[in-house]
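ok so I'm stuck.
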Amino acid sequence: AIDYGTELPEAYYVYSASQYNLGNKDIAAEFYNKAHDLDSENFYAKKYEECGGCPIECINIEHGFTANGKIITDFGKKLHHSKSTYIETRMHAIALRTGKYTFDIKLYQNGKLSTGDSRASEGYTYSTTIYIFETGKDIFNLGGWGNDTPGCWRAGNYRLEVWYKGELVEESRFKIE
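replied:
not stuck anymore, here's the structure
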């Protein structure tokens, strides 16, 4: 059916599942996303959701400082300890399918995982939900971690990891001076 150009999403969902079971995750995601584009409400969309993989492809990640909802240090600029508040993260990415998705974030300060959010999955710093309304390039705010008191982060090397359903999506290394 796929070879003959069917527009039936079921064919693409089932083919996606077969490729996933064969270990061909990239092919499975490609066909899952095709099916999702045809009918995201189809019964098979939820049944074979794992075959779709991550709903985004990361282009790059930027960090900045915010406090009380205001930008203190703009994204992508040099981060200074004296201005450190919430480390906000935004991801430039290509959205592969629409929907609501939860990502888990790990933030390491000088090699040590920052923890404390009881809503986060175990082993993560925090979790964040993004809404994708259309496919293509977009910028997604992945939330922040810290507090409103300037100087709350020490100077040092940091690493932020973005995870989706237990799979590492992307990591970003940055420095606070």
